[in-house]
Amino acid sequence: MKYRGRLIASSIILPIHTAYMVYYYFRDGHVDIADLAAYPLLAFLSYWAGLQYDKAVYYSDMDTLTDLYNRRFMIKAFDKIKAFANRMDGNLFLLVIDCDNFKYINDHYGHAKGDQVLSAIGKTLIKSTRDSDLVARWGGDEFVIVGHYKDGGKGLEAMLHRLEGQLAELSGRMKLPISVSIGSAVFPTDGADLDQLLRIADENMYVTKRARKASQA
């Protein structure tokens, strides 16, 4: 959570009160003890007011179930991530991750268990990615990851292997048939904006999903 609201509130309220005391000191030759005693209260109030703003901004960007970023934040942040990739002459990858049998889990084990699965998948995605990667719950049982790479995709392949292994462990720990289908797209090869990359990654994800179903038939 950022401190912007708290910094702004404190930088407005406390200087105003200081200016008020300085004015009355030069006018009357003294400072009222009540004005000095008000500093701690004003410091607390400015911190509290700023904290409410910071919380509102934070939770507007977060998915409360999984503690991942939400779709709104991904859309807002993508252009900055892309601009950074352009400056660094690097590539971006985008992954679309879909829980294959989420409806089955919801129907057979209940929505509370389904929520636990989504939360656990979110934690697994965070463990499997780098700090620089942006992980978001796109909606429902679908997640999106965006990140940079410069190594010809070797880092991306390693991350996918980690993800598959940790999801298999998650399925065993929760004793539930948890599996995902993953589709990928690369900027700028597959598209120049978020919508194009999502469309390509989504198509690739459904190819993977159909192939898995065919192999299990």
TrEMBL record:
Q: Does the keyword Magnesium apply?
A: no
Entry annotated with the keyword Membrane = yes
Residue intervals of the GGDEF domain:
90-217
Q: Report the leader peptide range.
A: none
Q: Where are the transmembrane segments?
A: 7-26
What InterPro entries would the database entry show?
A: DGC-Regulatory_Protein, GGDEF_dom, Nucleotide_cyclase, Rev_trsase/Diguanyl_cyclase
Which CDD domains does the UniProt record give?
GGDEF
Kindly state which keywords UniProt assigns to this record, in alphabetical order.
Answer: Membrane, Transmembrane, Transmembrane helix
Which branch of life, at top level? Bacteria
Protein name, UniProt field: Diguanylate cyclase (GGDEF)-like protein
Q: What is the organism field in this record?
A: Paenibacillus phyllosphaerae
What is the taxonomic lineage of the source species? Bacteria, Bacillati, Bacillota, Bacilli, Bacillales
